[in-house]
Amino acid sequence: xxxxxxxxxxxxxxxxxxxxxxxxxxxxxxxxxxxxxxxxxxxxxxxxxxxxxxxxxxxxxxxxxxxxxxxxxxxxxxxxxxxxxxxxxxxxxxxxxxxxxxxxxxxxxxxxxxxxxxxxxxxxxxxxxxxxxxxxxxxxxxxxxxxxxxxxxxxx
Length: 156
Prior knowledge:
globular; alpha+beta; three-stranded antiparallel sheet; 21% strand
């Protein structure tokens, strides 16, 4: 593995751990040239899914794009990077388990909103405002009404 700091291809693995419930391996490495440490992740390479957008345009499934979208929605919220990683891994597993090649973007967006609603309600509304293309404050109110009604009912 090439060191991200000095670009020399000479390192040793210090520690390996299973991650994402066995779906990946996290390796802690040390560069033998510059002595700096870095982390790598190893995961199974799956057949690529294609995301089918609204206009019928297909693009490759991009795990990092999901992470960026969730991170943007969760910005300055009490949501950790591990929470985001777990949500993305969960969704990715569902998609690869349910679809062989093409997955509608609508399915991904709706499932991300479900995951965010459980994770952080403010992040959920942020994501929903972009995903559902809110035009004015009424759109926010309509999205918030079920959440407020649910929180007013309290625990069962």
